[in-house]
Here is the input.
Amino acid sequence: MEYLYGDGEGHHFMNTESFEQIALDPEWLGDAVPYLLANMRVTVDFYEGKPIGVTLPKSVDLRVTETAPGLKSATVTNALKPATTETGLVVPVPNFIDVGDVIRVDTETGAYVSRAKGD
Here is the structure.
């Protein structure tokens, strides 16, 4: 399924074969919500026609929207700082990450993996 968007009613997904759409409640989606991006492909498992689970990709690329200023010289340090992404997820990142950077985040642990290529 493809994630379309979230609104006050829920998070909307579309079956890419039948174009049928479903809305899932944010509470039902739980920890998956901060990893959802428009046009992302996810697996929604169904049992007797009802959704029972959602499987995200192993990692997602998210743009940093807020963090302390980056230190370009801090490429070899283990010091981390919090960074807020476009979905609202807060991830500890290395000091050289700055606002506007795209980072790869592990969806199982929520941990920073690497800097990703931006648009």
In short: Helices lie at 26-29. The mean pLDDT is 90. Residues 20 and 78 are 46 Å apart (CA to CA).
